[in-house]
C-alpha cells in the first residue's frame, strides 16, 4: 500500500493585511518541507502529519510526502503560493497512490478561491477520481460542500486550544486506510447553522463548546465513526463562515443526519453563550492592578491583548494595550510580543546592554479597520538578542521547533518586551524561557493571544484579564465590515429563529 500524506494549512483572516506568500508556508526554510526530511521532522510530534504517519505505520503503508506547508494565520493566500503547493499535491495524487491523507485547515481563502480547500480537492479529483481521501480539519474550519462531497472522510479537532491534532489525523488516517482495507463504508452528512460564534467564547474549557464537543465524543462512542463540530472562523468575510457539523458513519446515512441535526440544534440553542462581552481597556487594567495587589494572589496576573493575535491573523504589532500598560506604570511585566524586524535590527546594531530609542510596532496599515495603530517611540535597554528558535514542549506542536526569527528583549521602565521577526503565537512558555525570562517569577505577564495561551500558561498564572486593544482579530464585529457572509446570521442580525433561514 502506497499513500500520500500532505499538508496545506492556513486559516485566512480576510481582514488581515499580513501577506501570505510561500515564505510564510516555509517556516524559515528555503521552501516547505517534503520527502524523508518531512517524515523525520514530523514523526512522533503532536501534529496532523505526526498522526497520519502513525496511521501509515499501523497499516504498513509506504509513505510519499510531496509537501508539508503550514503558514500562521494571515490574509488571503497569494495565488503563486497556492499553485506551488497544490501542484505538488496534485502531481503526487496523479502518480497512482492507494490513498491520500490531507492535513488541511478548512478556513483557507486564496486571492482567487473563497473555498481554498475545495479548489484543492477539485483538482485532486480530476487526476484521482476514485482514490480514498482522508481529511483532517481545524475546529475553525468554515465548511463548504465540496470539502465533504469530494473527500472520503472528514474529521475535525475536538479541542481548542488544539491539543488533539495528532489524534484527529490518526482517526482520519485509520478510517481512510480501513476503508481501503474494506473494514468501513463511510457515509457523511454535513450542515451549518447561521451563526458566527466569537472566537473568545469558543474555548473547550468553557460552556457551551465543552458541552458540544463532549456530546460529539459521546456520539462517536455510540456508533458514529467520527463526529465533528466546527465553531468556524468568523474573521473571514466569505459566504460559509460560521458554525458547522460533519458526521461520518459506517453505511448509515440516517444516523449521520440525526447526529448532525442534534448538534446543530444544540449549538443554535446556546448561541447567546457564544457572544463575547467586551470590557473597556481602562477597567481591565484597573482590575489587573487590584488583582496583583491582593494578598491572596499567588502568581502572575496575565493580561491578554486579544485583538491582535497571530493565531487568528493579527499583525502582532498593534501598540494600544502596551501603551496603556506603560502609561499605567505596571512594572515587573514580561510581554510577548511585538512583531517588528526593523526594531530588532536597530537593537542588534545597538548591542546587548546598551540604551537605544526605537519606533516600535504600529507599522502595518490595517485598511479593514477605521482606527489604526501607531508606533511607540520608546527608549530602553537591549537585554538580550537571540536567533529565536526553541523546542515546543506543550501538547500543541510538541516535538516541533518554534521559530520567532531574530529576537530581542527590550526593557522599558520595568517592562520586558519581546520583539520578534517571525509571527508565532505565544502558547508555549518556551517563548519566554528560551530568552532567559521565567514567566512564573513576574508580577504581570502580557500575551498577544486569545485561547491558545491556555495550553501552556493557564497552569502558571493566578488570574487572567482580557484586554480590548486594537487589531484585525477584534472581538467587536461592528469594527469590521461583512459583505459576503450569508445573511441573516447571528449575531450580526437580530435573528432568533432558524426557520426560513
Ligand atoms: Zn484553529
- Percent of sequence in beta strands: 15-25%
Instruction: Classify the fold: give the CATH topology of the largest domain.
Output: Rossmann fold
CATH top level assignment of the largest domain: Alpha Beta
Number of strand segments? 19
Termini Cα gap: 46 Å
Query: How many domain regions?
Result: 2
Which small compounds were modeled alongside the protein? zinc ion
Judging by the overall fold, what is the CATH architecture of the largest domain?
A: 3-Layer(aba) Sandwich
* Helical/strand content category: alpha/beta
Give the key terms.
501 residues, alpha/beta, Rossmann fold, 2 domains, 8-stranded mixed beta sheet, 6-stranded parallel beta sheet, 19 strands, binds zinc ion
Explain this structure.
- The protein has 501 residues and is α/β, with parallel strands linked by helices.
- It folds into two domains: 273 residues, Rossmann fold (3-Layer(aba) Sandwich); 194 residues, no CATH class.
- The chain is 28% helix and 21% strand.
- It has 14 helices and 19 strands.
- Helix 6 links the parallel strand 5 and strand 6.
- The structure holds zinc ion.
- Zinc ion (ZN) binds next to loops.
- The site of zinc ion has 4 residues, from loops.
Task: Please sum up the structure shown.
An eight-stranded mixed β-sheet has the order 12-13-16-17-11-18-10-19. Strands 1, 2, 3, 4, 5 and 6 form a six-stranded parallel β-sheet that branches. The model has no long low-confidence stretch (mean pLDDT 97).
